[in-house]
Structure formats: C-alpha cells, structure tokens
Design goal:
alpha/beta, seven-stranded mixed sheet, Rossmann fold, about 30% helix, three-stranded parallel sheet
C-alpha cells in the first residue's frame, strides 16, 4: 500500500512548498526544520495504524481510561539526510529504539553509480514495528538494500517505509522488491520524472547537502 499524504490538503503541503523552494532552501536551519516537521506529520499518521490498549490512568480527581501505545517502533534512518526526519519521528515516538544505516551513491566516470553500503547499527527488529526512513525514494535501490540489510536483524511484524518525495519508478521498484511482505509506503509527494543520474524531477535537489552542506 502506498499512502501519498500530499494528495490531500493539509499543513504538510505548506512544509513541502517551503522544502522545494530554491530561495527558502538557502536557510539550512529552515530546511532541516521542515524535514523534521514532515517527519512529525507522517509519524502521527503511522501511529493510527499501530496497536493500542486501554489503560487506567490516575488523575488528581480519579481514574481515566485512555488508549496507550502497546509497543514503541524501531526507527531506522539512512544517513545523512534521514537525520532531521528521524528527529521528527522521535518527537512523536519518544521512547522508540533507533537504527542508523550508512549508504550512499558511488558515481563512476561514465556517470553510472552503485550503492555503497557501510553498515547497520541498531537493535533486533524481531516481532517489532519497523519504520525505515529514506528521504528521497529515487531509483529505490538504496531503500531496498537498506530494508534487506535490516531484515538480517529479525523479521518485523510490519514495516513502514517513509520518504519525503518518491518517484513513480522508485515506487514500482520498491513494490516489486517487497511484494508479499507486510510493508506500507508513506510519502509526502510523488514526482513522475528522474534525470539520467536518478535525481527526482522536480524534486528538491540533494537533501543531504541542503541539510548539512555540500560534501566532496
């Protein structure tokens, strides 16, 4: 299932408009904050699909019955662009376990690239809800590779894959490579084009560079 939250009018679209705006992007702090706020919105939507149980909560005047989250998820983010969104998720799931994935594109002289995978640092995900954050779902290669590596740490009861912007090609690739598994995809926008170097168009540029500065 693919949930495109940008298809419905909400404050999320305001955050996305600022995120894409090349003028506003010059303010790195603003860019990171909008990524974080988008993370919060998507985290809230994901929470609606998680399991809650009614618990008795003592108030100063009595006892209230309130639904409470049964278990916290594991939030796994692809470095480095995933960090601001990761913080947004932690603002909602404040007791979540955390995992971090080192993966990046390694370009060759002819313009082609492959995904260089470093490692995964995090807890077991056996029987847990996994939230995998990869901000830009372009070709889908890094997301699928990250998902496959995370599965070496156990079998989650359900996986939510989160991107800020997804390409239609990347979504197709991701769906083919997670077919039959309990996976839900969440995004704030779907763009239909990619460049020859697999950058999403119109997209927003390099999310990692816009968050933290250019790298060599």
């Amino acid at each position: 299932m693919v949930n495109n939250l940008g298809a419905q009018n909400s404050i999320l679209n305001q955050f996305m408009a600022e995120l894409r705006d090349s003028g506003i992007q010059r303010d790195r702090m603003r860019f990171r904050k909008n990524m974080e706020r988008i993370g919060e919105v998507i985290a809230y939507e994901i929470s609606k699909q998680m399991k809650f149980e009614v618990a008795d909560v003592a108030t100063p005047l009595g006892v209230a019955q309130v639904p409470k989250l049964v278990s916290q998820p594991v939030i796994a983010s692809v470095l480095r662009a995933g960090l601001p969104i990761h913080n947004g998720f932690l603002n909602v799931f404040d007791n979540a376990e955390n995992a971090f994935i080192s993966a990046y594109r390694k370009y060759e002289k002819d313009g082609t690239f492959h995904i260089n995978f470093g490692n995964v640092s995090g807890p077991s995900i056996e029987g847990k809800t996994l939230i995998l954050v990869d901000p830009m779902l372009a070709s889908g290669a890094s997301t699928v590779l990250s998902y496959q590596e995370l599965l070496k740490k156990g079998t989650p009861v359900h996986t939510h894959i989160v991107s800020v912007i997804a390409s239609t090609e990347g979504l197709d690739y991701l769906q083919r490579n997670t077919y039959g598994k309990p996976v839900t995809i969440w995004t704030a926008a779907i763009d239909s084009e990619m460049t020859a170097k697999s950058y999403i168009v119109p997209g927003l540029g390099d999310a990692g560079d816009l968050c933290f500065g250019e790298k060599e």
